[in-house]
Design goal:
The chain is mainly alpha-helical. It has one domain (about 5-255). The chain has 9 helices and no strands. The protein has helices at about 5-15, 25-35, 45-60, 75-110, 120, 125-170, 175-185, 190-210, 220-255.
């Protein structure tokens, strides 16, 4: 039986990668996949997401505390990873695309001044061109802020969607909002807490990796430290997601 939502339970959810047999080797393999992602983007992350998915299945299906599994069933890691990575990408895509459109619009209209003939043929810039360029830049900035807000909103709903995907072992389950909404509503505070903890853990891991950057002797180890941090972020993320989803199901069962 998994520990309840106490301080001890939170500790188990965050520090479980330090427990179990052979955790160092498991870290090494996971970090190597993160390093490979810088050479061949995305592909190495798929089995890594599938690996983290097995941790979440242990919590949701077996009602146990999270634990690092062995790196054995690579076929399962790839099949589960495609579902989890794909759902995450779809939830993230609207915000990312909106930010990119806003960015290119802002930059494009900023450089558009260079193509105004009036700059080179007269002492004044065409008012229409100036207003159009400034309006485009302003619209680009608004779109970028809207994209970041959209990314935050979609990211807020991602945990229950992933939890439902894992529980049903079905990619489409992540997008059946009516099915996972009661779970999200029942454990709203739990999901908020999970996101706050995840943000804190991610910041701590990133700063821990950047410590190497500020040292002359160890700066060359920074890429390795970032890969380790990336591995831990992914497994802890899905650990927190699974615990929040499991606790939501418990609350629904209790009525």
């Amino acid at each position: 039986m998994a520990s309840s939502a106490t301080l001890e339970g939170v500790k188990n959810t965050i520090f479980f990668p330090l427990k179990g047999k052979g955790w160092g080797v498991k870290w090494l393999i996971g970090s190597a996949l993160c390093l490979a992602n810088f050479i061949i983007p995305i592909v190495p992350l798929i089995p890594l997401y599938g690996y983290a998915g097995q941790i979440a299945k242990r919590v949701i299906h077996d009602d146990e505390d999270p634990e690092l599994p062995e790196w054995k069933d690579w076929g399962l890691f790839f099949s589960d990873g495609i579902k989890l990575f794909g759902a995450t990408a779809i939830f993230t895509l609207p915000g990312v695309l909106t930010v990119l459109v806003g960015y290119f619009l802002m930059i494009g209209m900023n450089f558009a001044f260079m193509f105004d003939p009036s700059i080179y043929t007269s002492e004044t810039i065409s008012p229409e061109f100036f207003i159009g360029s400034m309006g485009g830049m302003f619209a680009g900035i608004i779109l970028m802020f809207a994209g970041m807000l959209l990314a935050l909103v979609c990211g807020f709903f991602l945990p229950p969607a992933l939890g439902h995907l894992i529980a049903k072992d079905d990619f489409g389950a992540a997008f059946r909002f009516k099915e996972w909404w009661p779970n999200f509503k029942a454990n709203f505070s739990g999901y908020v807490l999970a996101l706050v903890i995840l943000y804190g853990v991610n910041m701590a891991l990133v700063w821990a990796a950047y410590i190497f950057y500020f040292t002359i002797v160890l700066c060359f180890l920074m890429p390795i430290a970032l890969c380790v941090a990336m591995f831990l972020m992914i497994v802890i993320h899905l650990s927190l997601v699974s615990v929040a989803y499991r606790d939501g199901m418990r609350k629904l069962a209790e009525g």
